[in-house]
Every structure is written in structure tokens, then in C-alpha cells.
Predict the 3D structure of the following.
Amino acid sequence: MFYREAGDFSATYAQDQQTFPIKFDRYRYYVVLFFAIFVVPFVINDYWANSLLLPFLIYAIAAIGLNILVGYCGQVSLGTGGFMAVGAYSCYKFMTGVDIWWGGELLFRLPEMNIFISVVLGGVMTAAVGVLFGLPSLRIKGFYLAVATLAAQFFLVWLFNRVAWFYNYSASGQISAPEREFFGILITGPSTPAWATYLFCLMFTILSAYIARNLTRGSVGRKWMAIRDMDIAAEIIGVNPLRAKLTAFAVSSFFIGVSGALFFSVYLGAVEVGEAFGIQKSFTVLFMIIIGGLGSIFGSFAGAAFLVLLPVALKVVGVDWLGWPTDIVAHLQLVIVGLMIIVFLIAEPHGIAQLWRVAKEKLRLWPFPH
Amino acid sequence: MKMKLATMATVAVMAASPVLADLVFPSMSYRTGPFAAGGIPFADGYADYFTLLNERDGGIGGEKISVPECETAYNTEKGVECYESLKPLNPLVLQPLSTGITYQLIPKASADGIPIHSMGYGRTSAANGKVFEWIFNYPGTYWDAASIMVQHALDQEGGSLEGKTIALLHHNSSYGKEPVRTLEEFGQKYGYELTLLPVDTPGQEQKSQWLQIRRDKPDYVFFWGWGVMNQVAIQEAANVRYPMDHFIGVWWSGAEPDVLPAGAGANGYKSTNFTGVGTDFPVFDDIQKYVVDAGKAAGDGLSLGEVQYNRGLYAAMLAAEAAKTAQEIHGTASITPVMMRDGMEALEMTEEKMASLGFPNFAPEFSVSCADHSGPGIALVQQWDADAKQWNAITDFIKAEREVIQPLIQEDSMAYAAENGIEERCE
């Protein structure tokens, strides 16, 4: 009954190849977008923004980024936390004015950048660093590549802790985002309106998803998937593995860098590299795409929602409604989230995205499945 | 200026909203994660004192107290979530018990008009009340602790540290980096050489640092650790046979769970402390009677008298006294966070007051003022006796060298003020 192609004719190639070829699906997508852009900002409050929606949107960008590398190109990476740190620290340097020193003297200082530009530049810097750490992927594969990216993770965290230039020589070693405006509205700092930070992150999330979706179904994405499925075969049919792998690393790191920049500047406001961007973060994002579904943009959103919203939901139910002790609920959270990861891996290895696909197939035939 | 406007707006909103029935003292605790060993007894002490006030006195000034708890696991993201979920409850004061979360909340709470009491942790330069209107860190700061440790080392060496070496073994975070600046300054004054040995969070991996200590043999090891990091460090120190009386921890690195795992090896380990240890204070009789025996204790009642439990108790007592002061100033029992801030700023702890509350000789006397949010910075050094399994105070209360620290506080807080466009108050 739902999701049926019947009566849905396409007259041009463009219509035939659009992301949502089924009319019902397309309208649902427009409704979700409309709701997110025109309804949510009017009802949002600080709690919803800072506890749920901002982390969801930001992790969704990171998950999209990692999904491109792991899900589409098949290159396992454990360096997500480190790459997010690169995004965060570059964003910080750009928004406070990059200072270049030589021999104890200040050579020059860039002007303080607009927050939007700082976030994008954070992504660009991360893309460059990502390509650098992606170079070993040309020689090593699988677990060995995972170990190489793990080295990137630890090296980057160590670097940002060690070199005081990155945190502008602050005594605490933390970076904290000063107040910055975008079109005259505060986006960073303590007194930002909830709707503004939400819309700012939403803009980046929609753009990321749009770009990622269109990259992955174009020639670039097909090359990535060819490499993922069998790299030797891909090379024989003319896919250049160097370009395919390095573009995957660059694009993936760009998104991860953007998410790291937003994570620091808009969401937390102040971060400590070891705590915010440790190995834990790499695993969290990896879990997101595994639960959500490898090789699926929707899966990135689903996985991010699952791992961001579930702990908060459990806390609200356990502590606020049932009045259980906080430590019991915190431990239950670990048990339940862990259990659900195992259940998902066994029952539906392709993640929530696959569940969604199956549900759509079922709904299409409903109520007459035969 | 912008911040001021926002603060005023929040204050106006808060003044307009209806007054809640209870006095809300949230407990941002961590009973899980690698730092729970310190977090659990502290949270229990904090909750138990308020339970005692509710049961024995019917609250503060006739107003009942509620203590909503929120688990942060010492994690900044969860801390933010906790802050946002506690904010609508109109909390009178927040005590994050984490330097990282405190740094996070300083701008937010200042904009929202919620007082923060980071008791002996957090940002040291928040001691300058002229800049940090909403942040308090009495009775002492990390830089005071560093100064007290240096003075103790001076005493032990007969008055000179010339040519000595001190290693600072610290948590690689804003918490552990906090004393570096002060120790460097004192190094210039007293002529010792400082080496930094950072340990990454959470701190179980310290083998290489202790190998370095064994090789370099520094005269003193100063220690800024917390949670699981403390137990590991003390065990490692025992393993490399470092002289324990030259190993001095800050006040967050000297509690029972930290030294007990190392057994006899921990004997002689020292740490600073600003609260009394043990249950030989009259207040514990009341806690036993009204809270533990009545089955209302937050924990299992076994941690009474432990260092962190007593510190949680002390934090709650200071909060309650500040609330009383605020009630006197404003002549109303149901105070708001804004009034609470006034109470904290006018807080005066004298020996008579503490004795009347059942805390005789428990902590140093101090008073808070508009310009000074940290008190005098007094603490003592205690030493662990592994046979008797107890901490013994080995010095009197030592006063920090504020003439060295004050310019540093001034410098750091003015930098913050310039960064955030804050005008000085208290003229």
C-alpha cells in the first residue's frame, strides 16, 4: 500500500535517478526536512538542544564521514577521535586567529575567521591530515590498517596535549570557544539561543548528508565500492586505487573534521583533547555505523540517534520516572547498550538501515503480501 | 557587556518565575567509571548531611531540602546533560566535583545566574571574585595546595630546596595541569628543578613514568591524581621503593581507597587535606542516629569518617551555612540562586560556628568577600599509617604563600576577563 511505484512515472533520466524515486518516500523526506527546519526551532529549549539534538546532529556528521571510509570504501579506521580533534583544534586556531612564529618572533597573524568559515576550514585541515594518515592504506589492509589508524589516534591526541601552540598556551591546556556570531546571531559561547545553535548544526548536517549521498551514488562512490568489494578486480577494470582510497580518506576526514569542530565550538564550548577525543570517541562512532548500517547514509543517522538518544532515554525513564538510584541506572545503561549491540550484530548484521529496508518492502506489499 | 545583559535577563526571568517549595541542592555525582572510588563517598557525605538537616531540623530555616542526583561519570558530555536537566529545577548551587566540568560550566552558569562552588578544585583564578561573580572555590585552591606542599618540603629539608629536584606526576588534563604554573614560579624562588610527568586519563598506565622516577631519583614527587590513578601511583611507588615520605599528594589524592590496595607499601605516604578525618566529631552522632540508623543513608553507611565522605559532608555544610546566611541577608526562607550567591559571598566560618554545628576543629576558619572567593588557602599535611589504617595529621594548618600566588591569580583572571569582555566588580 505504501511505497508503491504504481502511477509514479518518470519522464527524464534525472527523475529516474533521484534519491527518492518513490513519491511517498519523497514526500516523507520533505515533511521531515520541513519539520526539522520550520517547526523544531520554534519549540526547542536548552535541554533539548544541548542534551539531545546537538549531539545527535554532530555525531550524525561524524558517522556519515566514517561510513564513507569504512562502509563505502572498506578501509577500517580507528582514528575518528583523533581526526575530530584535528577539526576542533583547527577550528579553534582559525576562530582565534592563527599565529605563525619563527625563531621566537611572530611572523604574522591571520585575522579571526567567521565561525562558519572556521568550521569548514577545520574540515579542510582534517582532510589534509586524513590523506596523510591514509597513505599507509595503499600498502596495508584490514586489521593492519586499523592498527595504523589507531596510531594516528594516539599520535594526534598526544600532539594536541604536548604542543602548547595548539591551545594558545592556556594554563589549563583546554581550548574554549570565544563568543562568535553568524549573521549577527551568537553561535558559540555561553549565551547562545538554543534555536540558533540547532539550526547552525542542522545546516551542516543536511549539507553533509546531501553531499555524501550524491558522492556515493556517483562515479566516485562507485569506485569506492569497487575497491571495497575487491580491490584487485577494481584495479583491473581501471579504478585507480591510489585516487580512490585517498579521496575516501579525504572526504571522510573532512566530514569528521567538521563534526569535531562543531562538537567543540557549538556543543561543548570547551574541550580537553584526552577526554573529549580519546579512543573512546573512535569506538563510539564506529559502533554508530555498525549498528546503523555500513554503507548507508540513513544508517549513519539511525546509529547516531541510537547511541545518543538511548542513554538519555534510559536515564529519564530510570531516574526521573522510576526514581532508581543513579548508579544502578548508569550501570544498566552499559548493560543494555552493550546487549543491544550484540543482539544487532547477531540478528541483523546489516544494522538498522537493513531493518528499515525490510520494513519498507513489507509495507509496500501490505496488506496483501501474496 | 553581553554577558552582563544575559545575566540580567536571566535574573529577571528567575525573579518572575514562581518560587519553588524546596531548596534544591543538586548532587552532580559519579558513582560509576574510573573515578568512582572518590566520587561515591563524597556523594554519600553530601547527601547524608542534607538528609540530617531535613530529619533533625526540618530543613534550613524551615524550608525542606531536596537533593536531586545526576550521574556525570566524570565525563564532560554527561556533565553538560546533567547541567541542562538540573537547570529547570532552580538549583541553589552546583558542585560538579570535576575540574573539567567546572571549566565547562563557568561561562554557562555565569550567563544563567547559577552559583558554582568548586571546593578546592576547578579554575584557581576563580578566586578573584571581581571577575568570577558566580564561581567560588573556598576554602582553598590548587595553587594553595602546591604552595603548601612546597612549604612542607622546605620544612623537611631544613629550609632550603636549592638544587633539589621535584617531579610533578599529574593527570594529563586541566585538573593535573593546574599547579604547573605555580610550581614553576616557586621553583624560581626556591631554586628547585621541576620535571613534569603527565599521565593520560584515566591513569592506570604509569609504568614508564615510574621507571623515569626510578632512574632520575627526584627528591620529591608531587602528585595530582584522582580516582583509579591514585591507587596505581601508590602501588607503583611501593614497587620501585620510592621513599614514601617524599611522595606528597594533593588533597584529592589522599583517601582510604587510594592507599589501602598497596597495603603496607603505602605506609608513610603523605597528602594535603583541609578537612578532619575520622568520626570523632559530634555531628557523626547525629548522622548515625537520624540518618544511618533510620535507614536513610545514601550509601551503605560504612564510609562514615573517610576522607572523601567527610569532605562531601563539609561541602554540604558550607552550602547549608551559605544558604542560612542568604536567608538572614534577604529575610526570607525560600531563597533563589541569586540570593544564594549573596549568601556565599558573605559566608564566614568561625571556630564557634563550626563547633556549634558539630564540626569542632574540623576545618580552617575563613571568610569570603566580594573580591576574594577562595578564603585564605590553609591546609595541613597528613600521613598514612598502614598498620593502624588511618590518616594522621603531621603538621598544623599551613598557610599558602599568597604573596606569590595572588599576582598569578590576578594575571590569569584578568586574561579571562579580557577574553570574555567582563568588567570588574566590587568597586
In short: Chain B has 15 helices and 16 strands. Chain B touches chain A at residues 2-3, 6, 29, 31-32, 36, 40, 69-71, 73, 75-77, 80-81, 84-85, 87-88, 100, 103-104, 107-108, 110-112, 123, 172-174, 177-178, 180-181, 198, 200-201, 412, 419-420 (CB under 8 Å). Residues 1-20 of chain B have pLDDT under 50 and may be disordered.
